[in-house]
Amino acid sequence: MSFAEGLTKIVAEKREEQKSREKLANKWRAHESKLLTELVEAFKKKCMKEAENERCEASVSFAALVREVSEFPTHVVIDSQHLVDNWGDGAASWWYYAHRGTNNEWVTGSPVSFAELLESMMPKFLEQAQDLGFQSCKREAGTWKVVASWKPPSA
Predict the structure, then answer these.
(1) 18: confidence class by pLDDT, cuts 50, 70, 90
(2) Is residue 155 very low, low, confident or very high in pLDDT (cuts 50, 70, 90)?
(3) Count of H helices and E strands in the chain?
(4) How far is 3 from 126, CA to CA, in rounded Å?
(5) Burial class, 142, CB count within 10 angstroms (exposed 0-12 / middle 13-18 / buried 19+)
(6) What is the pLDDT of residue 141?
């Protein structure tokens, strides 16, 4: 095999790696979609409870909301850092390739900050929550709180 043929082989192998990593990223996207659907359902229940209490606003912690979704990744505190310890039906490598790209290889056992995981999902959650028709639905700056409001009934 010539040097140039060796280079062609390297390029082909790298392309295969990229395809393989993109497949893993797509697995996370599908898993994340299911998690987001469950999160929105849990959020709707919180809002309904507020409406039943004759309120036209709900303030819900996204960090607390994720604990209500059984397959949501869980975390532990190690040296004051909140790190994902269980990915449920997902995998760290799936998340890594979906959110950090497929150029660099995931190193098994690398820690993932729980806050980074939440932050990666928050915009998608807000987008889906806003589609529910609220007057307003936004994240409270600097917090994990999501505040939604709806019109009061006519008098």
Answers:
(1) confident
(2) low
(3) 4, 5
(4) 52
(5) exposed
(6) 94
28 in Cβ contact with 22 (< 8 Å)? no
The DSSP H or E segment spanning 146 is: strand 145-149
Q: What is the pTM of this model?
A: 0.89
Alpha-carbon gap, residue 115 to 85, rounded angstroms: 13
Tokens of 62: 């996204």
Which uninterrupted H or E stretch holds 12? helix 3-52
Burial zone of 29 (CB within 10 Å; 0-12 exposed, 13-18 middle, 19+ buried): middle
Single-letter amino acid code for the residue at 142: G
Amino acid letter at 137? C
Tokens of 20: 């393989």
Give the three-class secondary structure for 148. strand
Burial bucket for residue 28 (CB in 10 Å: 0-12, 13-18, 19+): buried
